Amino acid sequence: MKFFLDTANTDEIRQAASMGIIDGVTTNPSLVAKENRKFREILIEICDVIDGPVSAEVVSTEFNGMMKEARELAALHPNINVKVPLIREGLKAVKALTSEGIKTNVTLCFSPSQALMAAKAGATFISPFIGRVDDISGVGIEIIRDIRTIYDNYGFETEILAASLRHPLHVMDAALIGADIATIPFKVFDQLINHPLTDIGLKRFLADWEKVKDQVS
Ligand code: G3P
User: Around Cβ 155, how many Cβ atoms within 10 Å?
Assistant: First the structure.
């Protein structure tokens, strides 16, 4: 399973990247809006730190605008893939971008049928949003389970990028179901490591060692 970081904050990206287990980054307009920096500058900086796919989202909602933005974003760095919303014009753009060799991440996916359409259009990644479905009393993770089955039934190569993951259990559920990628907020990335028994156990090991270290070392 690949881990992407879901943030446009380059400090967070540097911190997580120092562990060596971040495979890519996803951004979206809301995440970029928090940073108060030029979008393109952020993207270039992310690409300098992470040697893997970096998603940059278009904000046009019609085909020609999306294509123009997508080509400009993709030209910034070979690792950039273009995030396109799952609307009719977006799927048209995904088909055209794929034929131009530009990788795409189809975002704002909330149903298996949408994911099937994105795969048919040739999307590189599909981003089902789990937390936002849970927010309205749905069971977000079931969408990923169904997408996995559909893609496996037909051998679609579109990678399932589990998104809108809000806590460690979302990541675990996505892993158990077989999502190809989890895109994770920095806080959740950190939470995945924590366990109180690890802390207690380490404290005890070190205390025991301290008592005998002069005799055994
Ligand atoms: O990658 C999409 C993700 O950032 C959305 O997360 O928490 O805003 O639903 P959230």
Answer: 6
Report which ligand 1 atom has the smallest distance to the Cα of 31: 4
pLDDT band at 217 (very low <50, low <70, confident <90, very high): confident
In contact, 133 and 115? CB cutoff 8 Å: no
Q: How far is the CA of 168 from the centre of ligand 1 (A)?
A: 14
Nearest one of 151, 135, 53, 48 to 102, comparing CA atoms? 53
Which ligand 1 atom sits nearest the alpha carbon of residue 164? 6
Our CA dihedral for 121, 93, 70, 8, rounded to 10 degrees, sits at: -60
Q: Say what the pTM is.
A: 0.96
How many Å lie between the centroid of ligand 1 and the Cα of residue 19?
Answer: 23
105 Cβ contact list (under 8 Å, min separation 6): 26, 53, 55, 81, 82, 83, 84, 123, 124, 125, 126, 127, 161
Determine contact, residues 14/193, Cβ cutoff 8 Å: no
